[in-house]
Amino acid sequence: MTPFGFVAGFLILTVLGLLAGALTGLSPGLHVNNVAALVLATQAAWTSFVATLVPDVASEPETMGLLLSCFLLAAAGSHAVFDFIPAVFLGAPTEDTALATLPGHRLLLVGQGAKAVALAARGALLGTAFAVVALVPLRFLLADPVHLADLFRPWAPAFLVFVLAAVLASESRGRNRVRRLARAVWVQALAAGLGIAVLRGPGLVAPDAVLFPLFSGLFGIPSLLLGLRARPGSIPYQRVEPLRALSTEDARSALRGTLAGASVSWLPGLSGGAAATLASVGTRKTVGPSQFMVVMGAVSTSTALLSVAVLFMIHRARSGAAAAVRGLSGDLPPWPSVWATPTSLILLVASAVLATAMAAPLAAHLGRGVARRWSSSNPRRIAALSLLAVLILLVIATGPVGIGLACLAAVVGLVPIALRVRRVHLMASLLVPVLLTYLGSAA
């Protein structure tokens, strides 16, 4: 295969991944894991398609698998950026953007919806850059010589308990702290019970789709139901103005999100939602919603990139995209030393970086376009149409059972709003089932 043919194939698949990630990110019912499952299920068709675009790779199965993996990494990076547009404007969150929904709406309601998307895109770029810098230190920690991944496993249950307790402790400030703490415990208990029933109970919804009704009900639908009560003309004028210059506070927020994403990228059973929970601990009490959007942007992209990089470090898949990459690439080359980085990993990282670098300005531009039309719209109509769209996607993705699950989750999702405690406690619906999985495997 000629170098020109390989570079052409890499660029074509990266751009196609960018477009696929934009599609899944803008569609609340889709996730990049759906794309990964589709590519694995129809690998022969994808192979023929790529061979038509780049004939040079038709006779090299290993190269074909690597290029398809680059497509998935580009899709993951792009999805992580575009995902914030429906999270801010529609209130239809995925697991990765659930905690960004409320801060994004707060900015929307003060005329800064476009700013919320742009800040998330900025965080995504910074998170990707920090994730690249973190690759070698992470390899040093997880594998030889430290072997942190193996050493930490017995302590994972205690770590999850610490996360839940730290989120509770964030309510112990200000007035009526005892009452708020008791309410937060109640919210965590309700969310944990729901999560156990859904994630560890009978599999009424497909495993790769069950988080969509769960998180739509916990985070998205309650916000839309509140929007149905809004008065016409209550959506303020959306200011479309240049984003302020990059600040050290932006860098600190993005670094915080990247560290959370790096932590969760190798912890068994945890994913982007757990990274969001880690990054949220103490965040919104010290910084406003603007910086929180930067944090969440960094969480999304760093988790997407590092969860695949971890494959080369400890040979374990921690996300759907990582599992698909392993299925497409077969036996991954070892990373024998800190400085001998496999070429395939460099190419995968390059595809994610390139896609994120292109997706961030595109998403910010699209966010400005949406914001220009938002203030002249009827908020009740927007909420109703958004709710209808979410319900239709739920029916398509999960059927009537998913609708019932989302409605039940919405009842639980309204509780923290009524009790006036932070909605981050609802992430117990994911963390407690994972905790029980660890305790069960240790028994």
Short synopsis of the structure:
Helix content is 73%, strand content 0%. It is mainly alpha-helical. The protein is globular.
Task: Give an account of the 3D structure.
The protein has 443 residues and is mainly alpha-helical. It has one domain (3-442). The protein has 19 helices and no strands. The radius of gyration is 21 Å and the shape is globular. It starts with a helix and ends with a helix.
Query: What proportion of the residues is helical, as a percent range?
Result: over 70%
Oligomer: single chain
User: Strand content of the residues, in percent?
Assistant: under 5%
Q: Return the string of H and E elements.
A: HHHHHHHHHHHHHHHHHHH
Main beta sheet strand tally, sense and closure: none
Helical element count?
Answer: 19
Distance between the termini: 52 Å
Return the average pLDDT rounded to an integer: 84
The rounded Rg comes to 21 Å
Q: State the shape.
A: globular
Low-pLDDT stretches are: none
In terms of structural class, how would the helical and strand content be classed? Answer: mainly alpha
